[in-house]
Amino acid sequence: MKINYKSSIFLKSLYNQILIFLFKTTEKITKSRPLIRKFILISIDIITLILSINFFLWITKGTFLRESIDSFFDLSTFLLISVLVFLFSGHYKGLVRYQGSKSLYLIALRNIISITISALLISKNNWDSFSFEGYIVLWIFSTTFVGSIKFFIRDFLLFYRRKRNFKSSIKVIIYGAGQAGAQLAASLILTDNYEIISFIDDNPDLWKRSLKDIPINPPSKINKFKSGIDQILIALPSINQNRFKQLIDNLSKFNIPILKVPTLSEISSGKAKINKLKPISVEDLLGRDPVKPLNNLLGPGIENSVVAVTGAGGSIGSELCNQILLLKPNKLILFEISEPSLYEINQKLNSHEDIKTELIPILGDVANFNLIKEIFNIHKVSIIFHAAAYKHVNISEINLISVLKNNIFSTNSIAKACIETSVKKAILISSDKAVRPTNIMGASKRIAEQIFQAYAFKEGINTNKNSTLFSMVRFGNVIGSSGSVVPLFEKQIRNGGPITLTHPEVVRYFMTIREAVELLIQASVLTKGGEVFLLEMGNPVKIKDLAYKMISLSNHNKKDQIELKIIGLKPGEKLYEELIIDSTCQSTEHKLIYKAKEQCIDPSKFFPILELLKNEILANRELESIKFVKKLVPEWNISDYFKEKYENLIS
Asked: Is 55 exposed, middle or buried (0-12, 13-18, 19+ CB in 10 A)?
């Protein structure tokens, strides 16, 4: 039969009117009191049971319930018993829209009980001719009818909620049609805030099939959906880092925000649920798995000992204190010159449950030798991690005296105090900027390294059984630390841009704060004295590429308008960083941690020059200080900032 245009308009209008009526009715029911909702559900079950009995009689006997007193009594008894069984067994307690297959099994069990009791109690007017098989058929019909209506109500409620939120729903693609993808889809469907357009999977065996009535497509189909997609959700919790980076590289070209489910370890440990979606982090873009520590290198020398951390309130220092606390030292001494930072880290560490370590917050300047020596003596410090330093390159260039005074004097005071109080181990946190430095921060860090090297190799020190083992750890760019480019880019993206990039060819090595801290702790076990420890950080990352990926993967609603602005290299900034000066790396017990023994200035020559530099710094003579820094670090490539400032006085 051919339907004309007017008829189709009428049918469509009728369909919409019916939906509107059902939606309004559903809205009233869902907002009504619990007793009213329960009454409505009981009424629906009674009608459903009457229909199932009549259908059963029609199929088995070709008739319906007879219009007699006995029939009415029998029907009423069966319905009353069924409702009572449903009520007392919790049939009406569950939320309808969250019902699963278990509900059907419970309905089947309740109907067995109802039919059995009814067969024993009611008169035999209508039941005596039924065999055991007949009751089985009645049970099948009643279970089918009640279960079908129950699931119809559930699906209608879900459909109603999705329709109501249709315009504001987030349209997504789920990448991964495995168990994690199925769990994520089920969770999102119940929230009503998402509309799942498609699953995407690499497995050809799954293509053209469906999961939860949602089609599964190959990755090539993403381009087809991209104009109507708000987010791509990656449901591959067990994927390795290299494969994940390849996937992100492929998906970032679509310029759609990408979120991911937690890792398997986070899910299995209960730290996160499958629907706890997270944005793609910078760590995911590095293209390597995080370097995991060796358990036998975490703890020895720290447990039951006294540990001190300078710069305890900084980004590296605070995480270092957190990790040390887990290794259960007797005492943890927190050195910090900033009172707010010291208060914050002390409060944070004291919030740890079942803490038995004594926390000792020390407010003061670690360049103060007498203070350091007194604290070391009183508390019998075994290990010190020296993280206190000025490290912002562009600020350091215009505050040369302050940076040299802080970074050099603090290191010398600590090293001297370690020797005089027999501290067992001292670990200096250095930087890749100390290798052939082009800025004063890097040069000051290189001199700090030389101080530790000089004390490590000073005649007679290493032969003394009570001597201190001095070692250094060189970091790359630590993601999330103060001064890292990543937080700056994130802030600029949130503000709508522009992203400021000093040079399109700048590359950097990256490591996470956790990796940096674990490297420090493991170095304290591996050290024999005088080494520089390095972490295998993979290939350096081009900052320009990193910026573009961060823009592409951001949730910013105007990301197409975010500009990348080249502002030129800052004074003292390099295009690329290095990790080794003049030696080759040697392997250690950890296959991704290396050590190097680099050449150093003879202590008999080094310390007199250091003393002269100290005098110039205390006299606040910048030009003379630069000249002595150049003597100690001849490979320092003095920036144009200082050359222009002092014209041709600096050779």
From this structure: middle
DSSP structural state of residue 579: S
In angstroms, the CA 243 to CA 250 distance is 11
Three state DSSP letters for 505-565: CCEECEEEHHHHHHHHHHHHHHCCCCCEEEECCCCCEEHHHHHHHHHHCCCCCCHHHCCEE
Enter the tokens of residue 343. 């208060």
Which single residue is written with the structure tokens 């497995």? 203
Contacts of 159 (CB under 8 A, 6+ apart): none
Instruction: Sort strands 170-175 and 231-234 into parallel, antiparallel or unpaired.
Output: parallel
Q: Where are the beta strands (DSSP E) in 311-409?
A: 331-336, 358-363, 383-386
Round to whole Å and give the CA distance between 397 and 572.
7
Side-chain half-sphere CA neighbours of 407 within 13 A: 28
Give the model confidence (pLDDT) of 481-519 as tens digits: 776 777 788 788 888 878 888 888 888 878 888 888 998
Contact status, residue 146 vs residue 48, Cβ threshold 8 Å: yes
496: left (phi over 0), alpha (psi -120 to 50) or beta: left
Asked whether 532 and 473 are in contact (CB, 8 A), the reply is yes
| Element containing residue 170 per DSSP (H, E) | strand 170-175
Q: Of 150, 260, 391, 433, which is the active-site residue?
A: 433
Cα–Cα separations (whole angstroms), residue 352 to 262, 348, 355, 363, 618: 24, 7, 6, 21, 42
CA torsion, points 158, 163, 166, 167, in degrees to nearest 10? -150
Give just the sign of the alpha carbon dihedral 643, 647, 650, 651.
Answer: positive
pLDDT reading at 61 higher than 70: no
Burial class (CB in 10 A: 0-12, 13-18, 19+), 271: exposed
Closest CA to 219 of 237, 236, 240: 236
| Helix 132-164 and helix 101-121, axial crossing angle in degrees, nearest 10 | 140
Give the CA-trace dihedral at 150, 154, 160, 164, to 10 degrees.
Answer: 150
For the chain, give the longest Cα–Cα distance. Answer: 120
206 burial level (CB within 10 Å; 0-12, 13-18, 19+): middle
Task: Indicate if 595 belongs to the active site.
Answer: no
Gap between the Cα atoms of 547 and 564, Å rounded: 8
Residue 303: is its pLDDT beyond 70? yes
474-478: average pLDDT: 82
- Cis bond leading into 498, ω under 30°? yes
Among 285, 291, 199, which Cα is nearest to 247's? Answer: 285
Calpha distance 417→439 (Å, rounded):
28
Q: Is the confidence at residue 32, as pLDDT, over 70?
A: no
Residue 394, C-beta contacts closer than 8 angstroms, at least 6 positions apart: 570, 571, 572, 573
